[in-house]
Amino acid sequence: MGRAQRVKQRVRLSAADRRLQIVRTAMDLFARKGFDGTTTKEIAQASGVTEAIIFRHFATKEDLYSAIIDYKMKERRLQVQAALDEAASRRDDRAFFTRLAEAILDHYSEDPCFMRLMLYSALEGHRLSQMVYETHAAEMFQYLTRYITQRIKEGAFRPIHPRAAVRAFVGMAIHHALVRELFDPQQKHLKLSNRQAAAIFADIFLDGVFSSSESSGERPSGRRSLLERKAL
Question: Which DSSP category does 218 fall into?
Fold first, then answer.
């Protein structure tokens, strides 16, 4: 029996399910072998389809990259955005930045495949990592910049460079996630849950950006430091 006949005899999936299967398979291969080391033939074989089926769903590699981004980023970003919007509406800075850090750490620990995918893409000069940055990452960067700018105008934060502040905070969380996943998976040097790490990072960041009026005297509701909360 030829390969084409064996493929036909396999369970037929709906177009949407087949598309999702191909995306998941491609992600796994890209994360393990890199982009240069993965061919559409290998993706087809691992998916149990012909190359013609691959190209029927994804006419170009750009289409496949976009599908990967949508699959991995869109739903998670909307969930995180809702939680941040709620904290921002209450001007609860500690909840805002703790939730942000926790979302970043959860993303890396729950989906190491996507992390490897991004690293391969950046190191090999592929378009995928740039597409992620230009869409989801850039939108979140602008959102966080606007929040910090607003809090500076309101007098809650001291005058700082909003964009540099965003890079500093997000970088703190990402660095911790990368070190943990790549070099210290057993957490021998620093053992913290994602929630604990997020709370600590938020404390460190906010204690550095609160205005003098905010940092002196009584802290507003929701802005107790981690040590203060442990003492309660």
Answer: S
Cβ-based burial of 11 (10 A; exposed 0-12, middle 13-18, buried ≥19): exposed
Alpha carbon distances (Å) from 155 to 50, 89, 145, 158, 169: 61, 16, 16, 7, 20
Q: Do residues 225 and 207 lie in contact, with contact meaning Cβ atoms separated by under 8 Å? A: yes
Residue 127: closest CA among 64, 59, 72, 80: 64
**Which residues, 6 or more positions from 91, have their beta carbon under 8 angstroms from its beta carbon?**
151, 154, 156
Closest CA to 30 of 123, 149, 150: 123
3 state SS of 56? helix
Name residue 93's amino acid: D
Distance, C-alpha 173 to centroid of its chain? 11
The 10s digit of each residue's pLDDT in 87-103 is 999 999 999 999 999 99
Per the listing, tokens 């929630």 go with 195
Q: What is the C-alpha to C-alpha distance for residues 13 and 6, in angstroms, rounded to an integer?
A: 15
CA-closest candidate to residue 86, choices 104, 100, 73: 100
Give the distance, in angstroms, between the CA of residue 192 and the centroid of all CA atoms in the same chain: 19
Q: Tell me the pLDDT tens digit for each residue of 190-203.
A: 999 999 999 999 99
